[in-house]
Amino acid sequence: MILQNAKIYSEGIVRKGALLINKGIIQSICFDPSVEDYNFITQNNDDGKEINCENKLIIPGIIDIHSHLRDMDQSEKETFLTGTKAAAFSGITTVFNMPNTKPPAISAKQVKKWMDKAQKNIHVDVGFIAGVPKGINFEEIIKIIDLGVIGFKIYPLSSLNEVDWTDWLNIQKILLISSKYQIPIFIHPDWAITEDKKEDILQENTLENYNALELHNMLYPCQMEAKYVNFILENYYKIITDNDLESKNYPIIHFCHISCIDSYSLIKKAINTYKNLKITFEITPHHLILSNKVILSNDNYGKVLPPLRDENHSQFLLNELLDGKIQLIGTDHAPHTLKEKSGEYSDAPSGFPGFETYPLLLLNKVCHYELSLENFVKAASEQPAKQFKLKNKGFIKVGYVADLMIIDKIPQYKINSQNFKTKAKFSPFENFETNIQIWKVFLRGVEINIENSTPMGSIIKFL
Description:
By secondary structure, the chain is α/β, with parallel strands linked by helices. 32% of the residues lie in helices and 20% in strands. It has two domains: 2-52, no CATH class; 61-394 and 409-434, TIM Barrel, CATH 3.20.20. It has helices at residues 35-43, 80-88, 108-118, 138-146, 168-181, 195-204, 212-219, 222-242, 261-273, 285-289, 311-322, 338-341, 358-367, 373-387, and strands at 2-10, 13-22, 25-31, 50-52, 57-60, 62-67, 92-97, 125-131, 151-154, 185-187, 253-255, 279-281, 404-414, 433-443, 446-447, 459-460. Strand 11 (253-255), helix 9 (261-273) and strand 12 form a beta-alpha-beta unit. Helix 8 (222-242) runs parallel beside helix 9 (261-273). It starts with a strand and ends with a strand. The mean pLDDT is 96.
């Protein structure tokens, strides 16, 4: 297949040209092709197919390192089919799936069942992140690793496995396993406030005085996110020192959805001070763009963990992205039913869909010259591929997989959640405006953002 008459982003530059794709791999990139160049790629075009891109922009497919595809006993919220279809129509060609499923993915048997259910039911490539087995059972952890998971996720607020993740002994156990097997530990950073403190906040601050999102922020405050980040870092340093680890054997940790200035600053200081630490973090689009002052038809549509913060935090994080200082973005795509979200604030679950708004909103900042295309592609595609060792993904280069999205600038329109492919037809970004059209999306050279397409995604395994 040839994608011709395109603008191609590669190596930090946009140039006019054509791509030759054979058997799902980029075989040739011709910038400003001469007649001889074009004759060459035409002669080597295995399937004879050509697409005129009409001067639209080709960038790498997005790699979303944080999503919840649900399925199993939560199929009313989302299934592998609906979630990955939403990703495919959004230019997201690879997603990482989190383990807080029903039942939770905390045993080799359940992880395998999870993966088997995904086979032939995913429109994009999916990598699986497991929960930690009960008792941090070493033998079970080895069985899960052997299944090819990307890493393990820990939730201090709501443990999947009855393990107390505020106990330093448990943290050091999982960090030692990460060190030995060089497998990432994904961390939801938060430290719960006491029940007495929560009750005091609820008595002093009612929904009559604050909106639900402001109250949610008070119940899960920034200082508790920063407290947990600091707790993890202290134990990380202790593991290295006590075991005299060489840098090649440092534990690998990834902080999910950092939402506050203090926690962000703690991580950046650690990374900048000690160059060999194997520490990464992600920021979500909603923590870049939204604050808890956003006006919604239903405040529960914006209820999420970590909460939407005060505007000074979102503006700070957005400025860091604009300056190229944020390397990874994850949506935390977390679909729920409208019935769940329509209840009282205290009963409504946290989370909302993120696949179908992420590229429309951040690429809109690119097209309005607020965010550089280079910084977007680095955080959305290149750095996720590099940090998580996704071979031949994330870049437009010869020999790389043809996971691509083609986008265009069109007249401004409003985001309408009723058009989403996800089952969750609501969004805190309802009626936000964008100029971005996602024209075509390719997974290994096959167009996937078409109705009635056959699921052709693969499970990414780290063996």
